[in-house]
Structure formats: structure tokens, C-alpha cells
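User: Please fill in residues for this 281-position structure.
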């Protein structure tokens, strides 16, 4: 590679690394405890385990759970029913001021076997909430999320430029050589080059998937405007009776009949952004 090209790649690597460094450090520091979010929440008393029951295989009617959740906040709406394959004995019900509210007004935990109310999860409280918001959007909403996505792209440029520079800088050294007897600058450069090339694939995957995650809201908007709109348009128009009770349990059983052995992870209620006025999603 020509010296002029090496210099250009060096400048790209230098400045992309400097620009993204502070935000990468923040994401690493906040990302590590998020791996253990459930365990930390449980230790702090924010989350609970389901009690033992005589018949673990039984399943409560989720319509009863939905009605109980609605009765606890009569002015709010049930937005989502959430399940977790790692905790099949629990249902989580998210409430909102209206069906499309971006902020949850309550997050209830129910026993999926008996239908008993177990816990009102405290929203917006605790150190893990701060850690999550910093990692997700830096308390800046969609602008913060997209900014972190931009920093992810800058980091990808740093990784690619670093790999391009690795060959010319290390062509006279064996792989993994650390020149410990040279100056500290040389030693740290060798350590930087070695750790960078060893972790490149992992860092690249983490950065690229992180960027994709920051685009979840625009991607969701595209899904609404395309696939969801097509699905709704294909259905005949019918008058909507707000007083009519729609059975979430019947919808779940209908899906389970055609997908046996599957576990419900997420159910959006009719009228929600994730559904249509007449469909569960």
C-alpha cells in the first residue's frame, strides 16, 4: 500500500476511534449489567418468582387476567400481553393511558397457571432503569437512539480502517508479537493491534447488530405502512363496537392450534400500533 494511502487510512482510523470512544465506553459500562438485568432486578426486589402450585401444567384463561388488569386501572387500556420462554409460569401485562401510549402506565405480573395477580412492577425506578435508558437512548428519545446508531457506524468505520492498517504495520512481525523491550508507545501499539485483530469479528457483529437495533422504530414504521396496511386492506370493512368484548384467550388458542409447541412471546391488542383496529398481533 502506498504511503499516501496508509496516511489516509490512518486518519480515518484515528478520528473515527476518537469520536466513537466515549459513547462506546458508555455502552460497554451500561451493557454489562444489562446482561444480568433480571438477576439484579430480582436481588433489588423489583422482580419476583412465581410460587409453587399443585399443577404446574395448568393454564389460566388470559381473558380473566386481562379483565383483572383493566379493573386495576379503569381509565387505562391493556396494550400488550407479554410472555417469556424462560419464565413460562408468568404473564406480563402492560397498561397505557390509551391503547397507543408510548409510555406504560403500569406493568403487572400474573401467574400464568392460576391467573393470580403477583406484582406491580415499579416503572421508572431504580438504578437499572437509569442504566437501561442510558444504553437505549441516553434519555433523549428517538434522537438519542439514532445518534447511538450513528456512533455505531463510526465505530464500524474504525474497525474496517484498523484491519486495513494491520497488514502494513505488522508485515515485519509475527502474529501476536508484543515488543516489550521497546518504548511503552511501541508496546501499547502492539497490544492494541493484537487485541484489535483478535476481537475484530466479535466487535464488528456487536457494532452492526447494535446499529440495526437502533433502527427498530423506522423499520417498524415501514412494516406498518407495508405489510400491516396490506393485511388490514385485505379484510372487509366492518363496524367496530367498542363495547364488544374481544377474547384474547380465543385468539391465543386459535394460534396455538396451528403452531403447536410454540410459546407466546408478545400479543398486541386491537387498536394498538402493533396491531389493527380489528386484529390481535
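Assistant: Residues filled in for all 281 positions:
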Amino acid at each position: 500500500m502506498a504511503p499516501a494511502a496508509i496516511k489516509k487510512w490512518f486518519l480515518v482510523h484515528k478520528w473515527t476511534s476518537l469520536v466513537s470512544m466515549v459513547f462506546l465506553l458508555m455502552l460497554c459500562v451500561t451493557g454489562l449489567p444489562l446482561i444480568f438485568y433480571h438477576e439484579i432486578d430480582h436481588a433489588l426486589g423489583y422482580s419476583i418468582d412465581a410460587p409453587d402450585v399443585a399443577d404446574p401444567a395448568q393454564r389460566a384463561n388470559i381473558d380473566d387476567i386481562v379483565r383483572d388488569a383493566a379493573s386495576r386501572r379503569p381509565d387505562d387500556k391493556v396494550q400488550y400481553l407479554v410472555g417469556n420462554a424462560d419464565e413460562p409460569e408468568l404473564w406480563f401485562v402492560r397498561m397505557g393511558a390509551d391503547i397507543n401510549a408510548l409510555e406504560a402506565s403500569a406493568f403487572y405480573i400474573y401467574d400464568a397457571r392460576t391467573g393470580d395477580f403477583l406484582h406491580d412492577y415499579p416503572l421508572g425506578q431504580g438504578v437499572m432503569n437509569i442504566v437501561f435508558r442510558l444504553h437505549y437512548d441516553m434519555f433523549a428519545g428517538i434522537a438519542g437512539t439514532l445518534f447511538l446508531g450513528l456512533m455505531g457506524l463510526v465505530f464500524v468505520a474504525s474497525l474496517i480502517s484498523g484491519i486495513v492498517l494491520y497488514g502494513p504495520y505488522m508485515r515485519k512481525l509475527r502474529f501476536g508479537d508484543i515488543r516489550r523491550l521497546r518504548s511503552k508507545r511501541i508496546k501499547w501499539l502492539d497490544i492494541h493491534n493484537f487485541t484489535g485483530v483478535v476481537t475484530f469479528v466479535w466487535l464488528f457483529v456487536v457494532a452492526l447488530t447494535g446499529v440495526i437495533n437502533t433502527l427498530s422504530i423506522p423499520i417498524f414504521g415501514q412494516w406498518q405502512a407495508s405489510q400491516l396496511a396490506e393485511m388490514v386492506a385485505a379484510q372487509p370493512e366492518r363496524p367496530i363496537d367498542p363495547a364488544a368484548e374481544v377474547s384474547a384467550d380465543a385468539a391465543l388458542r386459535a394460534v396455538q392450534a396451528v403452531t403447536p409447541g410454540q410459546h407466546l412471546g408478545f400479543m398486541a391488542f386491537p387498536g394498538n400500533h402493533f396491531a389493527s383496529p380489528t386484529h390481535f398481533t
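For context: Strands lie at 77-82, 90-96, 104-111, 117-120, 266-268.
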